[in-house]
Specification:
mainly alpha; 5 helices; elongated
């Protein structure tokens, strides 16, 4: 790959580090996650699922939303791999994924809102 020449030289020699800047697609993935969390109900559902495993009916009661609305949010969170589900008979249970990304988002939400886990 040819070295990149920046239009203005500010003496910071950033040109040497251009190869180490992550690809655009990685930033697009981050933007998609932040867009997903642009809905307060979805953030609330995700935060709850960071602390317990629940079914749609119980989540609906907890957040005072209809089951279809909660299911819609769960579908989006699951597609982004922030939550996982398991089936037990006819019931499906959801919880936060055991990933570094989910843990970091959980910590970020709590830090931004100055709240803590209810079990602490």
């Amino acid at each position: 790959m040819h070295p990149i020449s920046l239009p203005h030289d500010h003496g910071e020699a950033m040109e040497k580090h251009m190869e180490s800047i992550p690809k655009t697609v990685l930033f697009e993935m981050a933007a998609d996650t932040f867009k997903l969390l642009g809905d307060s109900s979805r953030i609330r559902i995700f935060w709850i699922l960071c602390h317990c495993e629940e079914c749609v009916i119980n989540l609906s009661a907890m957040v005072q939303m209809s089951s279809p609305a909660v299911s819609h949010h769960l579908k989006m969170l699951k597609a982004s791999r922030l939550i996982v589900s398991r089936r037990e008979g006819k019931e499906v249970y959801y919880k936060a994924a055991d990933t570094q990304q989910a843990a970091l988002l959980h910590q970020m939400i709590e830090a931004l809102l100055e709240i803590s886990c209810p079990l602490r």
